[in-house]
Write a structure and sequence with these properties.
The structure holds two protein chains of two kinds.
Chain A (H helix, E strand, L loop, with lengths): L24 H34 L3 H6 L7 E3 L1 E4 L2 E10 L2 E11 L3 E6 L2 E9 L4 E2 L1 E3 L5 H8 L2 H32 L5 H10 L6 H13 L7 H4 L7 H11 L4 H9 L4 H12 L1 H17 L2 H6 L8 H11 L4 H21 L1 H14 L2
Antiparallel strand pairs in A: 1-8, 2-3, 3-4, 3-7, 4-5, 5-6
Helix pairs in contact in A: 1-14, 3-14, 4-8, 4-11, 8-15, 13-14
Chain B lengths: L8 H34 L2 E2 L7 E2 L3 H7 L2 H32 L6 H9 L6 H11 L6 H8 L14 H11 L2 H12 L3 H9 L4 H29 L3 H7 L12 H11 L3 H24 L5 H10 L1
Helix pairs in contact in B: 1-13, 2-13, 3-7, 3-8, 3-10, 3-12, 5-11, 8-10, 10-13, 12-13
The chains are: A alpha+beta, B mainly alpha.
């Protein structure tokens, strides 16, 4: 939408720094760049660390989760058998000599009672904070197949794919037609209808949800995928707006030339508009993918039995049922976020422009 | 007889236009307008889906105003709004200002900050549930290392809503992108004119950037407020749909959901939906009444049409 201005950097918008007088203009610019980069790097770490822990937790086993190591790389606190029980092993220093001993139990005053595994009778009391646990890297990739087979994720995956792609086809079909209608044809009331379309963006879906639920129940569609798919065939304000804005940039001369050759409006849409609007169609398709893939509210309401669930609902229920299996829940969560991440990185530029256009639609 | 060939060109153009927007007209009638009117009607009835709706006049509305949980849900929603919106607004704006500068790797930074907005709400909430776990979670372990005993986060009624607000701040990148577009839409001549008048960078920021951005900021604040009334996925996943502990996270939309789909109290839930509609409508009108503030965008849109 603001394509003529979007790439123009405005370097002067930041606040002045007090050091301005002493540093020259170049010095000031360099200082401000360095500071900006530093803040951005720190912020990025805050964004990425939780995701790193998500992967880390998904590769641990129950014991590792219980030990709760802060290392991103999954570490295992090594344990040894002492008198038939597994006790954690520590690198300790006794009378200046380094050796490995097992921690039997904690004692008051921040101390711990240690024992030499080879000689279980002899215990030593040492200050716990001075000793370091013996750790080893231990990774459990088998969490993934285990998580994905603990509940019928293949079924959820199939349902999600169905809802996402059949819905996407419906959305692309209906929104192209409607956007074409709004961008190319003069008719009484067209502008008012367009404003009406835009105003539906503001309408919270709860206001219409209950009657729609009752409608679908009367049609026998509740607990099928139809309530999530069929409405996509009736266009939506966001995508129509985005496509219409794009269609309007396609020169009318092309339509006129085709009309002279005897093309019907439908042929003009199919042979001229659609091929030229591919970037816009890709944008709305990506948005739709992310929306449908991540949507939780409507699948929760419309899908009651397990075999019809989508990934989002299945994952939530998985958590409710297996809440002690943190590692498996995280593995399933990683699987859920991987497709959007891949798509996002492949299509970033289109994507960010699309976000801007869509948000403008709300104005 | 309907013979299209006899129609005037204008008439044919209009007919084609209506034909193409037909999918939306049907959808609007069946899935928006009709349901809106139906839910207005249901809001005056006692309706449990199984039996036919029974007209009870304003009873649902009087019941709402005497329902402690209704007020609780409004309070929870507003508390979240107060915690999450201003901080998200400031943080998003500062990020946009930083990312609007010519620093190395600016595209990578933008990508990273935007990343959380594309991720599944369910998966992200499950992750934060683990991070916020009072005993085993990373957050409290890190706090412990600097000598602070962390709270119970989502398990503590006082901390549950702030925890959700922190989660929301993590996804602040979505606002950032909008502010960034706004910043890049500020005409360069304004800065040039300010410089000619001898304004320094602080003054340019204060007298050009801020005034030009207030419409966008204000608009996002109102949209965010409307958004909190639809806040659902995160709190449903975090509390298993209960709104606990001690109903401290009973958001408006969650309570509406419970009434409709747990207690099958469709009439009552419809009344809640309409109260929500009136709130949103009021907020939206507020935006439109102040629309003279963002003349720049309006002018640009008109120019493109």
């Amino acid at each position: 939408m603001t394509s003529q201005t979007i790439n123009r950097p405005i370097a002067e918008t930041d606040t002045a720094y007090p050091s301005r007088g002493r540093l020259g203009l170049r010095g000031e610019a360099l200082f401000s760049k360095a500071l900006t980069t530093l803040i951005l790097a720190a912020g990025s770490v805050l964004i990425l660390i939780p995701l790193a822990y998500m992967i880390s937790l998904s590769l641990r086993d129950k014991t590792q989760i219980r030990q709760g190591s802060l290392d991103i790389i999954p570490m295992m606190h090594v344990e040894v058998e002492v008198n038939g029980k597994d006790e954690p092993l520590y690198n300790v220093t006794v009378e200046g000599q380094a050796q490995q001993m097992a921690l039997l139990k904690k004692a008051p005053g921040g101390k711990g009672i240690f024992v030499d595994p080879a000689n279980p009778e002899q215990t030593v009391e040492l200050i716990l904070a001075d000793q370091s646990p013996v750790q080893a890297v231990e990774i459990h990739p088998e969490n993934y197949p285990e998580a994905l087979t603990a509940v019928p994720f293949d079924r959820y995956f199939f349902n999600t794919i169905t809802v996402t792609f059949v819905g996407m086809a419906g959305m692309l079909f209906s929104c192209s037609l409607v956007a074409y209608g709004f961008s190319r044809f003069r008719a009484p009331g067209m502008n008012i209808l367009f404003l009406l379309l835009l105003s539906t963006i503001m309408l919270p879906r709860q206001v219409t949800l209950i009657p729609i639920y009752i409608l679908f129940q009367n049609l026998g569609w509740v607990n099928t995928l139809l309530p999530l798919i069929v409405p996509q065939f009736f266009a939506n304000a966001y995508d129509v707006f985005l496509l219409r804005q794009f269609f309007m940039t396609i020169p009318l001369e092309l339509d006129d030339a085709a009309k002279l050759d005897g093309a019907s409006p439908l042929q003009i849409l199919w042979y001229i508009i659609i091929p030229m609007a591919r970037p816009a169609l890709v944008t709305v398709a990506i948005f739709h993918f992310l929306y449908a893939w991540n949507d939780f509210y409507e699948p929760l309401i419309f899908l009651h039995s397990r075999e019809n669930w989508t990934m989002a609902v299945g994952l939530q229920t998985f958590n409710a049922l297996y809440s002690v299996n943190t590692h498996l829940i995280m593995a399933a969560s990683v699987v859920m976020i991987v497709p959007p991440i891949i798509l996002f990185f492949l299509s970033q530029r289109i994507f960010m422009q699309g976000v801007v256009i869509t948000r403008m639609a709300e104005k | 007889m309907l013979n299209i060939r006899d129609w005037s060109l204008a008439k044919r153009e209009a007919a084609a236009g209506y034909f193409f927007i037909l999918p939306w007209i049907i959808g609007f009638t069946l899935l928006t307008l009709g349901p809106m009117l139906a839910s207005l009607y249901f809001s005056f009835t006692d309706y449990n889906i199984v039996e036919a709706p029974r007209w009870i006049g304003l009873n649902n509305y009087t019941r709402l105003f005497n329902d402690e949980l209704f007020w609780q849900s409004l309070a929870v929603t507003l508390r979240f709004a107060v915690l999450a919106l201003p901080s998200g607004l400031v943080l998003g704006f500062v990020l946009a200002l930083l990312l609007n500068q010519d620093v190395p790797g600016v595209k990578i930074w933008r990508t990273i900050f935007f990343l959380p907005s594309v991720l599944s709400g369910v998966a992200v909430t499950l992750l934060w549930l683990m991070l916020f776990n009072p005993e085993l979670g990373v957050v409290n372990k890190l706090l412990e290392q600097i000598g602070i005993k962390g709270p119970g986060w989502l398990q503590d009624p006082d901390w549950a809503v702030p925890s959700l607000a922190i989660m929301a701040l993590w996804g602040v990148g979505q606002n950032m992108i909008v502010y960034l577009a706004g910043l890049q839409g500020v005409p360069a001549d304004l800065y040039d004119a300010a410089k000619v008048d001898g304004a320094n960078r602080t003054q340019q920021f204060r007298y050009v950037t801020i005034p030009m951005m207030t419409p966008v900021l204000f608009y996002n604040l109102v949209l965010g407020l409307i958004g909190t009334f639809s806040y659902f996925t995160q709190v449903y996943v975090a509390t298993g749909g209960s709104g606990g502990p001690a109903r401290s996270t009973l958001f408006y939309n969650l309570y509406l959901y419970q009434n409709a789909f747990r207690y099958n109290d469709m009439g009552y839930a419809s009344a809640m939906a309409w109260v929500l509609f009136v709130i949103v409508l009021t907020l939206t009108l507020l935006v439109f009444r102040s629309s003279s503030l963002w003349v720049y965008y309006e002018g640009e849109l008109r120019g493109r049409r």
